[in-house]
Amino acid sequence: MLRVLTVIMLIAGLINFPMYEYFSSTDYTPPGEDDSFFLKSSAVCAETEWAACPNCTKKDWLMSYPSTLEGFASTSSDGDSEPLTFIKVNDCEIGYMETLPAYIAFIFIVISITLLRKWSRDKEKEIDDAEQTAQDYSVCVMNPPKDARDPEEWREFFVKNFEDCQIACCTIAVDNEELVRALSQRRDYLLQLEMLTPCDIKFNKNDLKEMAEVALPLSLYKWMTAYYNGKQLYKAIVELDKKIEDLSHFSHDCTSVFLSFETEATQQAVLEAFSTRNCSKFCC
Predict the structure, then answer these.
(1) What's the whole-model pTM score?
(2) Which residue among 56, 124, 126, 272 is the one 20 to 30 A from 149 at the CA level?
(3) CA distances from 139 to 26, 162, 163, 200 (A)
(4) What tens digit of pLDDT does each residue of 43-82 get?
């Protein structure tokens, strides 16, 4: 991409070369004292002169941004006549033909960038199509009914409404965060209890009470940082077991459904059918 942009800018610069040549010639600016390198080939005109401007006022120059009085001058009034005002103008002339390369270069850049963006999107789609991932075969239902926890119902729905639809996998996500947190905490306590077991004793997760009895005492650092000892870990695990059993009997609400199809064509057909313009036939 960066190389293509470099080539585009280089070609645009070559298109503007006749305009640069005109600006650096004496046809635009006659030779003068201010022939610095930075002014050469630029549109800055160093050939200026003072011209009368009866309708110009000092206020006009002060209100402009940036405010400057370098291009404004006036004579002092003698009481009998109004003061004369002058402004600085440049004598450089530039016509349509001299600026034509700039228009051509601008149009070239706009067309080139537009084509480059189209080529980039097509290339991105080509690479994405060539790389097969699980996302190419899957869809996610973000707002399912809260009681839609049966994968078989989802399979029957898609098989009934889409031709040659085969579902390889259906995952139901439920709102059981508290249960998962309790299971994770139990596993953490179990690992801590195992680390307190002496090396000559094999850890038996089916007899945690005995493991708590033979657990090693806490080091001074762990005792000062409020770590649980063996008996405290066993008590915490027992309490978590009761909590997990109670939470396991709840009917947790369905939050999202992930479905993987056998073919990518089926996935595309499902996405197209559930788009905004086509989903009305599935609404109750």
Answers:
(1) 0.45
(2) 272
(3) 69, 14, 17, 51
(4) 777 777 888 888 887 777 776 656 677 778 887 766 566 7
